Each structure stands twice: as structure tokens, then as C-alpha cells.
User: Fold this.
Amino acid sequence: MTRVLDVENLRVSFPAARDRVYPVDGVSFSLDRGETLALVGESGCGKSLTSLALLRLVPPPGRVEEGSTIRLGDTDVLALRGEALRRIRGRRIGMVFQDPMTSLNPVFTVGDQIAEGVRAHFPVSRGEARRRALELLREVGIPDPTARLDAYPHQLSGGMRQRVMIAIALSAEPEILVADEPTTALDVTVQAQILEVLDRLRDRRGMAVLLITHDLGIVAGRADRVAVMYAGQIVEEAPTAALFARPSHPYTQGLFASVPRITGPVERLSPIGGSVPPPGAWPSGCRFRPRCPQAFDKSETMPPLLPVGPGHRMRCWLAERGDGGAG
Amino acid sequence: MNPLADALARAWRDPRGRAGGLMLAAMAAAAALGPLVLPDPLAQPCVLTCRNLPPSAAHPFGTDDLSRDVLARVAAGGRISLAVAFLAVALSATLGAATGLVAGYWGGAVDSALMRLVDAALAVPRLFLLLLVLAVWEQVPVVMLILLIGATGWFGTGRLVRGEVLRLREESFVRAAEALGASRWRIMFRHLLPNTAAPLLVAATLGVGDVILLEAGLSFLGLGVQPPAPSWGGMILDAKSVLVAAPWAGIFPGLAIVITVLSANLFGDALRDAVDPRGA
Amino acid sequence: MTLIQVRDLVKHYESGGLFRGSAPPVRAVQGVSFEVARGETLALVGESGCGKSSVGRTILRLQEPTSGSAVFEGVELFALDRAALRKMRRRMQIIFQDPYSSLNPRMTVGAAIAEGIEIHRLASGKDVGRRVGALLEEVGLDPAYAGRYPHEFSGGQRQRIGIARALAVEPSFVVCDEPVSALDVSVQAQVLNLLADLQRERGLSYLFIAHDLAVVRQIARRVAVMYLGRIVEEGPTEELLREPRHPYTVALLSAVPVPDPERQRSRIVLGGDLPSPSSPPPGCPFHPRCFHPLRSERCRAELPPLRPVARTSAACHYAESTPAPAG
Assistant:
């Protein structure tokens, strides 16, 4: 399997009252061609910042810290400047954002915006760009694409707009597609449509997908591997089937216990007590410790990622006990 | 800390805000306290011998054509000019807020009527209207001047507040208040007005500069504050005839105008940035 | 014992006016009828544009209905004059979806909760403060927080404050307008548990508006599914989920992402887009996107009535033979 993305020890910092805080604090993962990795977590865990960092789009005054590594194949993304950086954005990594309502420019037609994406990365004529835009609209499943090419964003529904966003992201034919909560703002039936589009595209183009979401249900059907984030760190990572069969980190277990089910017995939910601490207020040692029902004395030291099973690791000392968490 | 205090604090941290705020405060302090320690601005202690003296230790800003101490007159004039500015702006803000609130919240026919009124009023050029009224009405008292300026300056604010109210009206907390059974007045004054306070304050602060210039202009034309009461515009008018011989008589009131307007605008700019957008 | 009975509720939003052009009205609600008994929860489920939020707001007369009736505790709500309506408002309250706009940013949290108490003169002087403190505790917050401003709280906490505000006037009926949709998974679970507890302790009735069937299952015994302004199916939650009779319900159910990789059902992905509520299709509102094998001309011509079929009521001419959801 060809490795297309390698992220090691990624840290993103922001200035704070006294020092700096690190909303992304030592995140490492990799992506192979054709693979889908889901980055799962709740608000404030750092998953969106992680995706922005890949494209060097972290908003100032935030910055990516020294010691972080982001490699796209052979290219060191963090060492790129100017034109070279612009070239990988879109061309090698494409990004789909969460809110299709505000991510499209309201004064340009949809066709123009897609064609712009094409021409930014390929030296083609306007006519050729327009032709490719039409192809892309077809590929993302927009009905009657010829008519839609000249439509303005406000004339399209949310689901359509999100497909247009995907078309724009694909216009440069990237190796990797980063989708940051692509369906959160959409209805559930529309969500099903969009996810199906992503699946088809991945199969047809062999794209790697980094799917960022808080919805475990979306992950179950679509991702090959999952990484769960909490307080700026990855706390558990595993192949999807393994994660769902044996959620091992107490936070992951807490997440599963909090999700209402559509099947099975209806029981009172067991939410995780307390709330997510903000970056400036992280406890020392294991960051989940204050909310963890299984915390013990060793939790006062920050655990590294420890193996729990094949390809399955978690950031918890319980891994040493071999029971991988009480489940 | 509530959002308004928060915005003020943030404006203060902004270097423009601090500079503007300090200068404005200094001008206000000088205007308030100056006349208490400075000589009488109307006094002509040495009628023939003290005319048009350049700045000196005895007269830091010099004397004017009628042997009056320029510094004293600038300070006293400041009192009047600043009072006119703040009071007129306060009047405009009140009228604008009231109209905007009612038009925005009540909607319907009331809104249409009020906005057509505003449109019609905006069609009349403010300066010409004032010139006309003041030319006919000689020797206008300062109170009337304030009322006239204030009553002709609220239209833009009215539209601004109405716009804010239209936006706020859709927010869930207003609906929640309605659901609790709050009366219209309660909603307008406890929920809508406090949330328009910040943009209103920005508009008012920037308006202060406008009114200073307007009043100075009117006084320069002899239509504003009437002599012998000192005003910055009036002083420039007086200095016109001796501008070559005694430039200080015109420079200092002119500087006062410039500094005041500049500081009001600086502070207003900083406040506007602090208010919108707030935070992220 | 029936607490509220709604009959043939219709709500159209006019998009005309004295100085604006005329456009077709948005037919948000097109004849909705239901009942809620004392102490019970009825869920109203549907996607954007189905009219569920409009139903909630119109019942409380936060918007005036176009026609229809709503009888609450024996009183016809739509016939009340302003003064009588004001008094009635004590008995029925609402909780909103967006925790960030549901609290006045310029009012302390204590003042917001106390407002209802003041308006209806339920207490005075020191008593008000004591009640506010008790309410904060009841929703799981420290009474000392009363002097703080909304921006100092997280989304989940703000929702709790909104709940406290609604409870302050001691209502018997609460419209919950997507109260957990904007919250993270673990916070969502906390608030759902809180709502269930409060219902039990205070004997509240809820009209629970949501788009997430799994959430609905957690809190509501009965559910009504809405599409384009009409109820297309209603019945006991478990029955409806197990054996849906309306094709839209089947599609909705199959679109819900299930956090279980083993149970990936074959999804029914609806084609097309939601039609605009200002020009709903004639006959059955769902027919342009319907996949029922017996779909016919009758569906286009004749609006199907809501009628009992097996264990639920469905508005479909061929409800008896609706294909079961796969998997």
C-alpha cells in the first residue's frame, strides 16, 4: 500500500494569557492510498485544527510548532513556501468544509467556481475548464448538470451545495481529500446521499480520505481506520471493526455509552460526567483523568499510546493490565 | 463582565482607542476646569495695549483683536462646543433609538410610515435647512441650537437601530421572552435596546466629530453660537480679519477643533472594531 | 388525559407586502392534527422544511396560525385575547435549539431565569433569588452562577439555563425545539437525561421536535413523522421504527447512521431534492421521490389521508404493502 500522508508529532499552538496553549498536542497518523481514516472527537478536541494544519491554513496568531512533521509522499509540507505551497493546496490535498452555506462565493456561478479550481492547477483554456466542471458535476451526482453549471449558490439546496464543494475539491484531482464534518449541517437523508458520493469517488479515483466527524454512525459504515481525539491528543486508534467491537479507552467507551441507539433496548444514557477542559486548563498527567471512572494512581503520569490488539492502540495505562478497559 | 463593558475595555486596549480617548478626556477636562482657573474670556483688561499679542508667559495662546486672552477663550469655547456636541448627539441618539426600536419591533404600517418619514427627511439637505432656520432666527439661544442640530441628525441612527432590531427580533432569546409573556415594552427596553447599545454608542461617538464641525461651521458663518459667548468657530471668524498679523488667534481654536474631531473619530473607530466582530 | 389537542393546523408564510412584490406563500404547515396527554412526550420528526418548528411556534402563538385549532387544558388557544394569552403563557413554555442565541447576552443568567417569575408576579424580593437558585440546582448548575453572563457558559450549560428559565413559571407543557441538535454527543446525553428526569419529577408533557430518530427513541413514546407540512406517519415509537408503513419513514430510518459496522443495512438513498414548500407537488407530497413499487397515478392526483395501518397511522395509498427496511 502506498503511503500518501505521514503526520508525526503535529503540534499547533495559540498565544494565551500567559504562555501558549497547544490545542493540537502531538498528533501522529498516516494515510495510505485508497484508505479512509476517520478522526473522531467532540468540540474542542483539536480535530479541525489538525486538518487545517495539513494545508498550512491555521489562522494566525496560531502556528504549527517546531518538531512537527507533515509529509505528502516525499514532500515536506512544512518546508514549503509561496508558490510551492499553493501548488499542493488543492492539487495534492483537497478540502471540503463543514458549512456549504458560507463556503461558496454567492456572487459567482457554481460553474465558474469549479472552473476556477481547475484553472488554478492546470493550464487549460476556459472552454476546457468548463467542460471539466460539467464532468465533475456529473460525477458528484448533480441532476441536470448543464443547467446547474450556470446556477448561483443560493439557487441550490444544502445537499447540492455540498456536492459542489466536493466537486471543487476534486477539480484539482488531489490524492487526498480532507472532509471536515461534511454532513453535519445537512439532513440525514441528504447526508446519506453525500456519503454515497464520497464512497463512489474514493472507489473510482483511489483517493485517500481523511474524514473528520463527531458522529460514530458515519464512521461505522465508511472508515477503514479510526482515531479518537481528546484534548489535543489521539487517545485511541484502531481498525474500525476493532474499535466498535472493543472500545478500549474510557473516553471512547463513554462516547459509545452516550449515543442513543436506533435498535436494541432503550436504556438511560450514561453520559461522561463533567465537560471538556479548554486548552489552557488541561490537567497534568492523563487529560481524561478528572472525568474517568477508571482512573487510578498511575493516571497522574501522561500515558503514551500503548498496544491493545493488532493495529489497535490507546493512550491509557489500563492497556498494561491487559483488560483494555472494563468495556 | 457584560458585553458593553467588554467592548469598551477592548477599545481602550487598542492604541487608537487609548489615544483618542485620552485626548478627548483631556479636551473635556480642559473645557470643564479651564474656565475656573483661567481669566474671564470676555474680559478686556487692557483695551488698547493688549491687542494681538503673540503667545507669551502671561498669555500662553496670545490675545485676540479685542485684547481677550485666547487660551481662556479656547477653554470657555470648548465648554460650549463640547456641550453642544454631546447634548445634540445624545438627542439624536435618543430619537434614533426610539424610532428604530418602534419601527423595527412593531413592523407593519408603523414601520412603513416611520421609514417613509426618514426617507423624506433625508432628502432635505441638513446644512441648508439649518442655515435657513438660523438665518431667519437671529440670536438663537444655545439650547435651541442643540435642539435643532439634534433633531436633524437622528435619521441615520434610526435606520441603524431599526436594522439591528430586525436582526435581533429573530433571535431565540427574544422569542423566549415573548413565550414567557413579556410585554412589548419589556422586550423593547430590556432585550432589544441593551443589545443595540454598542452600535449605537459607536454611531454616537463618530457623530460627535460631525457635530463639532457643524457647529464650528455655523458659528464661523455667524449663525451658531452668538458673540460675545466664545466658540471655536466664532473665534476663527473673528480672527479672519487679522489672520496675517495675529495668526495665533485663529490657529489655536482651529487646532482645538482638529484635535477634538480626530480623537472622537479615533475612539469611535476603535470602539467599532471592538464591537463588531467580537471575539472569533 | 389529554392536555393539548391540535386540529387541522395550517400555517402559511406570506411573502408579499405593501411595498414588495407578490410571491407564492410558503406553505409550512398544511393541516396537522395530534394530541399530547398529560405527562407524555410526543416527538415531531422530520428534516428541514417539513414544518415541525413552525408547528411548535404556532401552537404557542409565537406566530399566528393561518387556521386550525389548539385546545389546551380545555381552552381554545387561538381564540384568546392578548391579556388572556399572556396568563396562559405560564402553562406552556419552549426550549430552543441554538444555545448561543437563546439567552440575552446582556442579561445575567439569574435575571434571565427570574424574568418569567417577575412577569407573572410569582414571587417578590428575596424570594425571587431563592427560586432562581433552586432552579439552577434542579438543572444541575451551581446557584452561585446566577450573576454570570451567558458567554461564560458552554453550550450544554446554556441549554440547562434555558430549561431553568422555562421551568421558572411552572408550565405543564413544554415545546422542545431541537434542544440537543447543536450539542456534542456526551453533552447531548446529559441534557436528554435531564429532560427525562424533569418530566418524571414534575409531570411535564413534551412536544419534542427533532430530526434524529435515535434521540427521539430515547425520550418519546409516540412519534409523528412530518414531510412538507403534513404528518405522513404516526404511532408508538417502537412500532413505527420496527414496522414503518410510510415510504418516507422507511427512507428516513434507513438513512440513520448506525454505530455498528456489522449492521450496515442497504440504504435507501432518496433521489432528487426536497421540493420547495412554496410549491408543493399535487396529491401525495412524497410521490416525486417515492420508491414504493405500487406508486401510481393515484398518488399524483389524490392526497392520501392519514389512516390506521397495522400498528401505526400512515398517509399512503399503498401503506399495507410498503417494503420493509432491509437489514
